[in-house]
Fold this protein.
Amino acid sequence: MKRNSTFLFLESPGAITPLPWVDGAPDFTGFSDPTLAVLQKSWTDFLASGQELEVIPDPPPPPPEHDWTAFNTAMLSDSNWQAWALPADLRNAMIAASINSNLTSLENAYAIAKAAVPPSAEAITGWQGLADTYNVPIVF
């Protein structure tokens, strides 16, 4: 048997069932007979066997969600973005891609825009900071 800080992976005949691990013991709440009886017997048998419970690490936390709305608001408010002398069609393409949370379109539009009108190093550094802050996976 294995457990981490939140689950016991209870081995019973034909299955491994994750059970909440609460206050140093499995929590069988939510199970009813006949499943409950099988799980409780498997746990009792394990305890009687004298085997050690293997403690395994918790899985890594999920990555934070991309916050496109906050990123878009911050970018549109950014003085370097406002000062970047892009033609309207390129600016609109970038805004549309970002508003639609379309990373591929945003990357493509940015590549075309920076080739047409290279942004300053200061602008790139600032925009990358915004992308990193709001977990938007673009590299400026």
In short: The helical segments are 35-49, 68-77, 79-83, 88-99, 103-116, 121-133. The CA atoms of residues 71 and 134 lie 6 Å apart.
